[in-house]
Amino acid sequence: MRDFGWIRAEPHGIHVVPCNAWIDPAKPVERALITHGHADHARGGHGEVFATPETLAIMGLRYNTGEEGVGVPLREPLDLGCGVTASWHPAGHVLGSAQILLEHAGERVVVTGDYKRRPDPTCPPFEVVPCDIFITEATFGLPVFRHPPIEEEIAKLTNALAAAPDRCVAVGAYALGKAQRVIAELRRLGHHDPIYLHGALEKMCALYEEHGISLGELRPATGAAKDEMRGHVVVCPPSALNDRWSRRLPDPITAMASGWMRVRQRARQRNVELPLIISDHADWDELTATIQEVDPQESWITHGREEALLRWCQLHQRRARALALIGYEDEDD
């Protein structure tokens, strides 16, 4: 077996040794390759930054990185020097998200970042990229996590709204990706009424619109009268569901869109009345199916429930190891 000594899993990220580049580093570095814009993968303070144009725009909005960075179109090879080539391929996670394929000395390594396999109207679908080493996330790497069809979860939301027209449904959704996906899926499934937004979501939704993702009529919840929001969906950050901001809503049905809503205790802890199991990560079946489709010489597992996926690989005679990276945290997926 090859030793792949040119790429190392170090505590603060994946280190591409020949060109001294880091993938999603947890601290500022001279050269960073970024998979997507969530805060546990993208940060300010780097020297050179390489990412998709959409991810750079998200970083500029969220981390005030300005116009810094090199925008790399999907699938276009980028020469990093010292015999290393990188290219970005769709990950299906959020707008701009991409797996990074690294090629050196005839060897291929894919770093997935976060990904999902379900269709999503807000971003291109995941692309299977053949490689020798597959570095995969495992956020939902336990057999209990099997996400239901999103159509079922959106139906729960719209049925709750129809059953209580004098109330609103307040959906807690992560500000980057989840909020926009919930809105886009509502539109796809025929809900064309105005949707109200917490102020913290307005700029990111506007950025999605600027990149061609139509979200329909959105109205600010701040300043809207209670009666105006009756019978409507209100989308907000999860933290807003139980704070003072929610008091302005008309008797809200509290909902939360997250893969973690599969765990009833999490829903109870958040005082969620309507748990919506909507995830922007691959579930257990999708993680294992992806490893089989990619069929690498070895899988490196990170960012989540590493032990169970590692054990699955061992039981299926697949070489694998768990990484011990720091700085990766659960999102309000």
TrEMBL record:
The keyword Transmembrane does not apply. SUPFAM superfamilies: Metallo-hydrolase/oxidoreductase. Residues 25-168 form the Metallo-beta-lactamase domain. Keywords: Ligase. The keyword Acyltransferase does not apply. GO terms for molecular function: ligase activity; RNA endonuclease activity. Pfam families: Lactamase_B. It comes from the Bacteria. InterPro entries: MBL, Metallo-B-lactamas, RibonucZ/Hydroxyglut_hydro, Xnuc_lig_assoc. PANTHER family: BLL1145 PROTEIN, CLEAVAGE AND POLYADENYLATION SPECIFICITY FACTOR FAMILY MEMBER. This is DNA ligase-associated DEXH box helicase.
